[in-house]
Amino acid sequence: MLLQLKTSLIRMIKTPLFEYRLSSSKSATMPLPLRSKKRKSQRGLAKPFVDMKSVRAIGGSGGDGCISLLQAWSNEKAGPDGGDGGSGGHVIFEASYQVNCLNHVHAVIAADNGEKGYNKDCFGKNASHTVVKVPVGTILRNEKLDVVGDLSSEGSMFVAARGGAGGHGNMFFATDTEQTPLIAEYGAKGEDINYTLELRSMAHFGLLGLPNAGKSTLLQAITRAKPKIAPYPFTTLKPHLGVVQYSDYEQITVADLPGLIEDSHKNRGLGIAFLKHIERCTALIVLIDISIPEPWLQVNMLRHELQCFSNNMNTKPQIIVANKIDLPNSEENLKKLRTTYKDDQIVPISAKHGTNLLLLLQTLRQLYDLNLKTVKGYQESTGE
Length: 384
Fold this sequence. Notes:
Blueprint: H1 2-14, E1 52-58, E2 69-70, E3 79-80, E4 91-96, E5 108-110, E6 130-135, E7 138-141, E8 147-151, E9 157-161, E10 192-199, E11 203-208, H2 215-222, E12 240-245, E13 251-256, H3 271-279, E14 281-289, H4 296-309, E15 318-323, H5 330-340, E16 346-348, H6 357-372
Parallel strand pairs: 1-5, 4-6, 11-13, 11-14, 14-15, 15-16
Antiparallel strand pairs: 1-10, 2-3, 4-9, 7-8, 7-10, 12-13
Protein name: OBG-type G domain-containing protein
Pfam family, one: MMR_HSR1
GO molecular function: GTP binding; GTPase activity; magnesium ion binding
């Protein structure tokens, strides 16, 4: 045990703290990105970000009515006294800034049933409603994929499945001609409805690039997110979300998206499902590997796939980030890349070594302040 603790301490001492490099010529008044002093845990990886989920909502059943005849000491046949059953609970979705994804939403959500009725005219207790918090900007679709709910503001609610009413006890059925009815009602069943939950906006910036371009490495370098990193393609199969916080406490969310390949709009690779993730990002970071021959072809291919999927995709604000600037031939390729695209669109970095990340984060903040800060339907909720 002591040996294991000693080894762990040595590893922590040898691990260098992350440092931003190459300060840029940006204005000194611009808020700087903050780095948490707390080290990242090495135990396990973060859960993937979920921006779409199929949910079955089941309302609670009403309680059964009671059949009972009152027997008082002074009157053995005092009449019916069976109470009604309680109503079942509803399933309700509530929009909240306290959550930012659908990870916590279960596939089947069932509300509680109402309590049965009792004798002596006692009614059963109504079940409490089951309220599930979802991010602001969540859209609900029915089985026909029609939009039936849009939770666009804090506190807005949508009743997904109503609970059944409680059944009447035999006291309800007493009449002048029938003084001792021996009938009661069963409680009504609750609604059982399937929905598809979607987030209108997933993140401020989406990392768009080919497999193995370094998207997960970059996300881990600029945020406290812990996506899986490995030296083979398609390491990222589901989105991961990270948050960058600045010195004025403004937060920017960045999503690590699965790698895009040629003909993805024809459903190759991760295909259409992946392109829908991009559609939910407000702006794009086009990440390319600057060390390979003709890296500008990556930009052309990525933008072509976006254009083929939707005409509006390439209208999103974009910046080009040239990763792996520390490798051979990168500087020469960067010069050729800048002959095609404007200088202010290209940020050369090394996500692995932390080179030029401060410039990148300042560029993201500039783009955020100019284009994204007033975007309706999205507000950052919490840190990580």
